[in-house]
Amino acid sequence: SRPLVYVTRRVPQSGVDILRKTCDISQWNSDDPVPRDELLRNVEGKDALFCLLTDKIDKELLDRAGSKLRAVATMSVGYDHIDVVECSRRNISVGFTPDVLTSATAELTVSLLLATARRLKEGISAVKNGSWGTWKPLWLCGQGLDGATVGIVGLGRIGTAVAKRLQPFGVDKILYNDAIETKNAREVGAHFVSLDELLKNSDFVLCCCALTDENKGLFNEAAFSKMKKNAIFINTSRGGMVNQDALFKALSTGQIAGAGLDVTTPEPLPTNHPLLTLDNCIILPHIASATYKSRYAMSELTARNISAALQGQEMPCQVKL
Ligand code: GLV
Ligand code: GLV
């Protein structure tokens, strides 16, 4: 009989079409996340799970799924929502979607950087609310990238793609910090430095690393206090990288100049959250990979990850412990 796959959301159809050729599919056919109790009920007896970053894949869920489950594939590059150790213990392959979203995510990172540095949020609201009086020499001045030092925390696929895209803007120096010096660095002219050095010397600090138990809350009060007063902080990784109370304090006291976030804790951020009251903080609703090309490719890669695992093969993009 055909393997059973549960798809936890309405997703780009091209991925579902790939799975339909060989599998029987049941799907949470909504644009909103499947409620937890519904998810737990629906994974029972499935061979594979096509999930999103909004689904927590933990021991409880794996227990409910039962012993047939062989593959968990997430339509995301991040897999911090999946207990990969527990999956490995049960011989369940875990798939993710690197590469196909690198360009889109790098573009959005640069967009957020430019938008924050050049104060677009304040400019747009000034035009809209009538506080645009006239052209003024120093009104809404921000910082350009020309001659700037950019620090990238996490020079992986996305961090490297960001560095490449920044070079034509005339940045002076790209610094990076990562677990180890990477060979990507040479091709983008990035210099390996300690995190402290990066924080102290960068005009722009970009968070482009994967969230882990070890680096959770890395951008805390101590980190913001080391940054330059003109520093702009950008996060397109995971909200969990940042202590948001510390960020609010740093932004509201002028310890740093601005922040651009595509990710927050929680998501969505409550509309009465203090960060939303700040003119120097731009917050986007986790859209870094949101191009049609990228989202379709993510859906297809997730499906191919599942198909491979169900045929007893290694996934095209399998998480390695
Ligand atoms: C998005 O955040 C992803 O991990 O793909
Ligand atoms: C992280 O997953 C990256 O692609 O850089």
TrEMBL record:
Gene Ontology MF terms in the entry: oxidoreductase activity
Presence of the UniProt keyword Oxidoreductase in the record: yes
Keyword vocabulary terms for this entry: Oxidoreductase
InterPro entries to which the protein is assigned, alphabetical: D-isomer_2-hydroxyacid_DH, D-isomer_2_OHA_DH_cat_dom, D-isomer_DH_NAD-bd, NAD(P)-bd_dom_sf
One Pfam family this sequence matches: 2-Hacid_dh_C
Domain D-isomer specific 2-hydroxyacid dehydrogenase NAD-binding: 110-288
Domain spans labelled D-isomer specific 2-hydroxyacid dehydrogenase catalytic: 5-319
Family from the record: Belongs to the D-isomer specific 2-hydroxyacid dehydrogenase family.
Protein name: Glyoxylate reductase/hydroxypyruvate reductase
Taxonomic source organism: Sinanodonta woodiana (Chinese pond mussel)
